[in-house]
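Onboarding guide, step 5: your first structure request.
Type a short instruction followed by the sequence, for example:

Predict the 3D structure of this protein.
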Amino acid sequence: MKITLLLFFVLCSCTNYPGNFKYVIKDNVHYNQDKSERHNGEVIMPDGLGPFPAVIVVHGGGWSSRSYEDTTSIAESLAGNGFVAYNINYRYSPEHHHPAQIDDLEAAIKFLKTNAKNYKVDTKRIGLWGYSSGGHTVSYYALTRAQNPDLKVGAVVAGGVPFDFTWYTRSPYIKGYMGNFRDKMFEQYVDASPSYRITKDSPPFFIYHAEKDTLVEHSQATSFEARLKMYQVPVERCDISWWGHMTVFMFSSKPLQQGIEFLKRKL
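The system replies with structure tokens like these:
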């Protein structure tokens, strides 16, 4: 029993970064008419008249598990610092392959813009935040919609991200997401990789990564940073010493603080 409770605590833990704003939480905010659990989310709004900049938050879990409850602490930290946070679920792989998760994020953004008055959102100042597979989703969306004025976002925070799928020949996570292993669909792996979607119009990025991450190599972050710089896209990188993929997400306050301050400057 003690081990079970400890595991539950660890899985549900996440650091926070309190701000000066009080906030309210609206649960069960669906962005799709089917009203399914996977198209559900929570909107966390600062007290005040607004309008406020908004950030859509996308959880990790290998595209195939977990929920927005994992990223509630991030969303609450954003709201406490003056952002409307829409913390969302999305459809799982392998039942739903790429780009279903990207399409879900697009639907959430359109919903937030359509209902901007209800949620006190400044539609001209919208950013994205995601970790791990959620970081891939927000990065891919931001890069592929950068030239569409109705869909583009102003800034992205992404942590622990596999930016280049072609590094992974037999990843079970990416196979579930894409539908097969790399050598069976190499061109599709390239197409689904944020690293190959960068243009001069790409929004500013804040990327963070654990130096001891054994699930997604730290060099994914440095390589993606270099490619952004090739296109002169503004980018900031935060490295976290010693910790791994999940411990950074759950316990490190450094990237949360720096990521929120980055969004304050960019949005």
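Each response can be followed by summary notes, for example: The radius of gyration is 17 Å.
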